[in-house]
Amino acid sequence: MCSLSINPNFKRISNLLIFLALCVFSTLTSAAAQELNPNIIQYHTQEWKGVTNRNGTGLYHDLMKEIFTDQGIKVETKYYPFKRALLNVEKGNADISGGTEKDSPNYIHSRYPAWVVRSTAMFDKKYLPDWKGLETIREHIDKTVSPPVTGEEYGIPLHEVRTRYAAIRMVVRDKMRYYIDDYTILKDLFHKNGGLAFEEGKETSDLANVDWSRFTIQELPKREWRMVFPNTERGRMVREIFDAGFKRLYESGKLRELYAKWDLQDVMVQEIHPETNSTRQNPKK
């Protein structure tokens, strides 16, 4: 009788190939399941005081809890610089970020704004005689500072810095002339020295002795900051859940309670119309 002898090395190679094949299959299956199942979503954001505190409190965290967590969807929050968080959404590595007006072909905006921006410019009153609104900002781009993506939202290449704290200090020290941000945030700083929406770890105590009466706050065109999602089937699914939950909170009155909890009633959308377009219209410049 003829006996067949199998090389031990061949067995080891065969077992290795089978193991690798199973690993690849498992990875593909897991990815496909995640693509079809939004029960765990990735929320990427920068930390902002009163909005996205690292301890899980803040307006946006409350919105995530009410909209997603209470519907049985787990929210995993990761903190990044804001531009990186938006880039993660563009690449499909995050399900939601924001809010912003910044456009990208790789993500889509929520139907309703999470923050209605009363956009303003803060500057020393000595420059007030030359003030002509957004025209002045366009004329003095090199002397205007703002938080991330503000310039992109206005279509102006402003000098953007990573933190509000750094931007404010530049204007206070007369290194820059104009600072662009939301009125509610500046009002909180002027009247309370509270640092609403300032990045955690960037204290405003050294600004406590600033003579804020030196400065004026002037109106600019309003903007609406909306949450953003990947421009994919999954992204559209997550956006649909967010929009429906946001509308439900608005109709029940719970939305106003959440904004009031953080003293942010002024930035809440005041009316929601069923026919509102799901994509943001460009604001008037």
Automatic annotation (TrEMBL):
Pfam family, one: SBP_bac_3
Signal peptide: 1-31
Name recorded for this polypeptide: Solute-binding protein family 3/N-terminal domain-containing protein
Keyword Signal: yes
Keywords of the record: Signal
Organism classification: Bacteria, Pseudomonadati, Thermodesulfobacteriota, Desulfovibrionia, Desulfovibrionales
Organism: Maridesulfovibrio salexigens (strain ATCC 14822 / DSM 2638 / NCIMB 8403 / VKM B-1763) (Desulfovibrio salexigens)
SUPFAM superfamilies assigned: Periplasmic binding protein-like II
Limits of the Solute-binding protein family 3/N-terminal domain: 52-262
Top-level taxon of the source organism: Bacteria
